[in-house]
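Supplementary Data S3. Sequence and structure tokens for construct A.
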Amino acid sequence: MCGRYALGIRASFVRHQFQEHDMPVEDAPEDDDVRQTYNFAPGSHGLVYRADVPDWGAGGGSRPSHQAAGSPAPEDQDEQESDMEDPKETKYKLQAMKWGLVPFWTKRSPDYGSVMRTINARDDSLAQSGGMWNTMKQKKRCIVVAQGFYEWLKKNGGKEKIPYFTKRKDGQLMCFAGLWDCVQYEGSDEKHYTYTIITTDSNKQLSFLHDRMPVILDNGSDSLRTWLDPKLSEWSKGLQSLLKPYDGELECYPVTKEVGKVGNNSPTFIVPVASMENKNNIANFFSNAKKAAAGKEETKAIEAEETEVSQQKVHVEHDEREQRSTVEHSSTEDNAPLPVPSPPSPTTESKRARDVDTKDDDMSRAKAVKIADPSACATPATSPDKKTGKKTRSSTSNVTRGSPAESGDRSQRITDFFNK
């Protein structure tokens, strides 16, 4: 069966994607009219793609007697019937409908339990003549739009259920074969549009998970166009043959158990538990713990899936001319790797050595001058008063560096200067 799927995208986005695959969309609901959730459950309003035919279905003809009470105005009826007279003018549209088909003959709103019994229609039931699906399968066929669907793998006799998400490997939208109907309850003028998803036997890839799967038709394919063709208003073996297990490439992997609660919604619901993107997720933490305790075969399978997902990461191309490496610095605010300083070149090193030698020579020469001239270390005297009219002289003017032998007591000369 198919009891939960993902539709976390806008109707406008779906319209654009369909038009890219040569699937015309003449009309589409507002984005807010369709529930956008990664945990789509029965009873919610989903997105359906169908031929724009009258509410009683394709193929023209008269309106069913049960719809006479809530029938549209005569001018609307004539307009709808005229659209069906020329098949070349057939248009297709996206429409918001409620999941859980309510047949057109229903007089009162059914309870939730009754709706749950019509969220799926088995392909083998459609093969039989008559039955509740007889009118819908001939005149009211549609496509149900999804990103993928969930199924739960039962373990330990059903005590443990692990959710799996299945999607197309090429990333395209999933188109489920479905049926729709329109009903008006007694005493009400409001129309209720509902739908069901057709299921078939599982293919080999999904047989480990469940014995049933939804019928998937490729976007823009001949099979899809045939299924929606309003001119085919009689059930045939050709239409029945379209209801078969999907033979394309699919991806199926375990996801977080949080998807089990209908009220939960998160983009992480369609991300593999074992992927690199969920390393910080609490669900992934417990998954790693289980992997450590799992058998060798199961561990290898999980590790292989992790490798496949990691290889899908964005590849970063580095400049070959950039030779600098990085090193971790825990003292930085963001702990980002910082570039390691480049080693000095031999030319720079020799120049630095010459600068050091020159500096040492200057310091040695200055030291020798201080030793030969102790007066340089003497305390400076106060300058004489300029008002005396005497010519001022430097306190060291009597000292001649070039003739140290003229006097043996240079300090005496300085004292005599102040006594004059």
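Construct B, processed identically:
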Amino acid sequence: MAQLTSDTSVLRNETMNVLTAGSSTSAATFGWLFYYLARYPAVYETLRSAVLEEFGTSIDPEHTNTASLRTCKYLQYCIDETLRLGSPVTMTVRKAIRDTTLPRGGGADGEAPIFVAKGTKVISNFFLSNRRQDIWGSDAEEFKPERWEHREHNWEFTPFGGGPRACIGQQLIKIQVAYIMVFLVQLYDRLEPLDGDCRVTYDTTTNNRPGNGVHVRLHRPVVA
């Protein structure tokens, strides 16, 4: 940003935008990640094995940096799967500033171009698109990090939006969540949900987060 402008007001406002918006988004993402990991113990066990192998134990930790967090594949799979099912932003709204045509969305099958008149509002609903079985498979409602093993990020997955107006804090959010998860996974070998099998609820007042909070018990292994 400093390479694009020397206006201190712009720099300050953009920095504050990342820090303030990023904190609540990171918290919401972290909440959903704990929510799902507590309900999928096999996933947590696999994640812990990957973290201990990559970063060591809490007693003898390895150096952790941005590069190593990004290359820990299963950790990134878990974060992406959390963003798919618990996207902190459920939708975006854009308004056409001129007449235009989108390449898809028209016709009986939705594959033909579609005209968008100036002033038309276009809503992208991530909550619904991230659960489409024609994109994610019949197990779209399941928390399954392994689905990311052979999948590349594209326009089917845009939890932070896309293009020039995508969320500028998306990498900050993913790194924050990854760093905290490594620290906690090193400490605790098991998560247990304390709210049973109650139906999931959503609080979308600001960011999308678990409606009833996240109530879990963390088990710390005894070190001989």
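The first strand starts at residue 91 and ends at 95. The CA atoms of residues 98 and 147 lie 39 Å apart.
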